[in-house]
Request: fold
Amino acid sequence: MTPAGAISLGDIGFRYGRETRNTLSISELHIKAGQRVALIGASGAGKSTLLKLIDGRLRGWSGSCRVLGQRLDPQRQPPRSWRRKVGFVFQEFALVQRETVRRNVLHGRLGHVEPVLSLLGRFTDKDDHAVDRAMCDVHMDAFADKRVDRLSGGQRQRVAIARCLAQTPRLILADEPISSLDPMTAQSILTILRDRASARNATLILSSHQPALVADYVDRFIALDAGRIVFDGPPDQLHEHRLSGIYRNAAATQHERPHEFA
Ligand SMILES: Nc1ncnc2c1ncn2[C@@H]1O[C@H](COP(=O)(O)OP(=O)(O)OP(=O)(O)O)[C@@H](O)[C@H]1O
Reply:
């Protein structure tokens, strides 16, 4: 049994549809509760797929995957009681475009209320407080009543992060959470993710194409190349030559697979 909050993967194999190669091949990976991890690697390396696996949304993989004390089943959805402990910031934000910022952030509280009460729009003061705080954290409180489809890309990304924070999850999975943000906003969002995760001893795993920017906010980098872990260590061990090696190898691997990029 792994300690509560930890992630433990063993002999993971996964491929999409009729792909000939595995998208993920991970022999072993353990992440302790409260650890902050950045997933890096070239486009197509498998970062989003790994996050989906840990989020319990991937089907048809082999091996063993235990997250927050729950053994995930490759064929089934995890239970609702588990799901509310895991917050996900989607790469494409996954917001309800015609709803306001506040309504979207409130969706982060759905796992905390009875489904029938949420349908009636009955949320508690605690839910409202969590929503207000999350909107303030990402500096979107002034936009609370604005429809999401009237926002910029960076503002939408902050709403997606606020929705996740409002959920108060024990595990935060964030797929490129700063990709649409200017450098100053990116730093402030990374600070909030780090501080909010630390305050609750929540585990944070984010993917990013900006290793230099995220290095100050994580204690561990995991680099993927073609679904395999090619580096796993603290930021101060990710020297420039290793980093350029990771991306050079990835470029070479992709060159061998031109059909994927046709
Ligand atoms: N739904 C899907 N069906 C088929 N193939 C997929 C699907 N999603 C991803 N892939 C393929 O799986 C591989 C890994 O994709 P993934 O999105 O996990 O990479 P990534 O490292 O997150 O990339 P990026 O940095 O561009 O977001 C890629 O070759 C991609 O084309």
